[in-house]
Amino acid sequence: MKRLDLIFSERELEEILDTLEKAEVPGYTVMKHATGRGPERVVTEDMEFTGLGSNVHVIIFCEHDFIDKVRENIQSILSYYGGVAYISEATGMF
Question: Higher pLDDT residue, 10 or 53?
Answer without folding.
Answer: 10
